[in-house]
Amino acid sequence: MLLEGKVIIVSGVGPGLGREIAVAAAADGANVVLGARRVANLEAAAAEIDPDGKTVAWRSTDITDEAQCQALVAEAVARFGRVDGLVNVAALDTVMGGLDGNPEEWRQTLDTNVIGTLHMVRAAVPALKESGGGSVVMIGSQTAFWPAPLVPQMIYGASKGALASVVWYLNRELGPSHIRVNTVVPTWMWGPPVEMFVDFMVQGEGLTVEQAKARITAPMPLGEIPSDGDVANAVTFFLSDRAKFVSGQTLFVNSGEFPH
Questions:
Q1: Do residue 109 and residue 132 come from a single domain?
Q2: Of 100, 204, 207, 217, which one's alpha carbon is 20 to 30 angstroms from that of 25?
Q3: How far apart, in whole angstroms, are the C-alpha atoms of residue 87 and residue 101?
Q4: Between 39-49 and 17-27, two packed helices, what is the crossing angle to 10 degrees?
Q5: Is 259 inside any structural domain?
Q6: Coil/strand/helix, residue 81
């Protein structure tokens, strides 16, 4: 198994990608430590991964609070003795619009997605160094590279663009400690949020489910929406020793989608 014996922290474990990454990491042999604000989501994910609790731990964590990030890492070390990887999924992605947006919501998005993520990385680095190195994986967004045609998310894209720059700096800063930093960039992922958006189009525009999906997949040469699990598999590769000389890289999991 790719992650046998490793200890992986996943922030932002809800009903979607964060949970799928934790499930995939555990299936590949890792002990997983889950962080999110909502206790109910953490309890549900932990019960799914390991009802006995032998290979999973969790702690309610708001990444905008650095002390809570440090406590999540401390939980990992206390339960499993080390940290080998960190996946930063936690993000605020609900702020829509462009210049017509709310500046306070802009600040909240940047504080969560950029500063909060850096809180989480800074908290994990001492434990990663103590383990002899490891892997940090960011979850990016195509909105950082080109505007989404169906959903205007200027400030969310800007926040993910900032993280793209952060990865270059962290790659240089943490590389000497054998800590790799990479980014996985999904397109639309077939999971709870996209299912809700498809239902919104069906109800609001009178489309069939297949018509709504076709609108999403129009710029995708492979013609299919990747699942949360497909993205999770790319993340586990970056966490594994198969990527031990891969750092500072961005991997798109997007069915070949590019701007059109």
A1: yes
A2: 217
A3: 29
A4: 30
A5: no
A6: coil
